[in-house]
Write the structure tokens for this entry.
Amino acid sequence: MFFRRLYVRVFIELQTRIVHFAGVTAHPTGVCVTQHARNLIGTFTDRAAPARILIRDRDAKYSASFDEVFRSEGIRIIRTPVRAPRTNAVTKRWFSSLRWECLDRLLIVDRRHLEQVLQVYLGHYNTHRPHRSLDQRAPASPVQVKPRGVVDIGAVYRRDRLGGLIHEYEIAA
């Protein structure tokens, strides 16, 4: 409502395409970006196969303290090459999807409202939205064997998210 620009920070796992929400801020600074990294570092290190590499662009907001958060956990930092627009293609595509499927159809009134919308959209994106690169599976869904031939699916239930902006479908058990 006040026509302020808000910046969203996310981390995307390239192999699984799972998106992790780090935070929203009106004034991104090196301190803010570093705090977002600290808030999210446990997600990448507390698992059986921890993250090994972080790819980031060359923005000045990514200070030495930001890099140190990841280096202290054994994660190698790789900066994208200069003037290489395709190196962040997955992230750019995700932000395009976010805009096309969600934000272009909503009037976001403040930072808190944006955070709530992003949490719902991320839940949908990570658990229900199919991806071509993942054989039409959602990023957080288990690997399933595709059935062959005709399958009787029975009743299908629809769940509306964000006031009907996004629809999720499930087969009735």
